[in-house]
Amino acid sequence: MSGRKALLHPWVTNRAKYADKFVPKEVAESVKRYAQAHRFQKAVRHSMATNLTSSELHKLRNIFEGLDTEGHGTITIARLKEVLEAEAAETGQNPFGGIDLSNFDIDGDGEIDWQEFVAAIMDDHELHNEENLAKVFRQLDVDSSGTLSLTEISTILGNEHQFSRQVLEAVKRNRGTGDGVETIQMTFDEFKNLMLSKGDLSSVSKKRRRDTIKNFSFSEVQTDENAEQNV
Ligand SMILES: [Ca+2]
Ligand SMILES: [Ca+2]
User: Fold this and answer.
1) Closest ligand to residue 115's CA
2) What separation in Å is there between the alpha carbon of 220 and the centre of ligand 2?
3) InterPro entries in the record, alphabetically (predicted)?
4) Distance 192 CA to ligand 2 centre (A)
């Protein structure tokens, strides 16, 4: 069997098995929006992924297993790329075309595990659901104060302590108060705005968007800026 056939063989088998289940259009759209989301949203979605009910997970599980053709329980980014290229060769369409696949890999280990996968392809209505947002907010609010502190935000962002500070800086600028990031507490409404904002922190810092762009070095934000310049 040639290398290419070896690649395609289990893939084709799985395609038959999961006919019409592989990467539905709405999932591809969801992933595209995910790729544009800022890191804070991705990190929260990652936490939220553990809260989905089993029927919601079942649908996603089929897609994941269709991609995890060797049954390792994880998908390498290289493998996902191969599979999508095979899909494109067969159907003429790459559902994730134009998306940087490293967006899936939150911890940067080169592999996409189940939770990272769920975070990326979770339906937007799950993300936008007030109840789900409240639930994940309560989980993040370790001391049950009803607000999120720098320490609590740092927990979900892992080692990106500087980024946690930047998130609270945006909250601070929007409020226009003198509180420092060490003492400022993010409310649920601010959290919701941040989670529902598109691609940058503009809804958190509407008044000073230019400054936000300058101070935040998100690649997504820079893309936004470039897009504006090209108009
Ligand atoms: Ca990973
Ligand atoms: Ca708290």
Assistant:
1) 1
2) 28
3) EF-hand-dom_pair, EF_Hand_1_Ca_BS, EF_hand_dom
4) 15
Q: Among the bound ligands, name the one nearest to the CA of residue 141.
A: 2
Token pair 């269709």 is found at: 66
CATH topology of domain 129-216: Recoverin; domain 1 (1.10.238)
Closest alpha carbon to 26 in 99, 125, 101: 125
Which of the ligands is closest to the CA of residue 155? Answer: 2
Closest-approaching ligand to the CA atom of 144: 2
Digitized pLDDT (tens) for each residue of the chain, 231 residues in all: 444 444 444 444 454 444 444 566 777 777 777 777 888 888 888 888 877 777 777 777 887 887 787 788 888 888 888 877 887 788 777 777 777 888 888 888 888 988 888 888 877 777 778 888 999 999 999 999 999 999 999 888 876 778 888 888 888 888 887 778 889 999 999 999 888 876 555 444 443 333 333 333 232 333 333 333 433
| CATH number belonging to the domain at 3-123, selected among 1.10.238.10, 1.10.760.10, 3.20.20.30, 3.90.660.10 | 1.10.238.10
Three-class DSSP category at 98: coil
- Least distant ligand from the CA of 140: 2
Residue 98 CB partners (closer than 8 Å, separation 6+): 32
Q: Tell how far the Cα of 36 is from the centroid of ligand 2, in angstroms.
A: 28
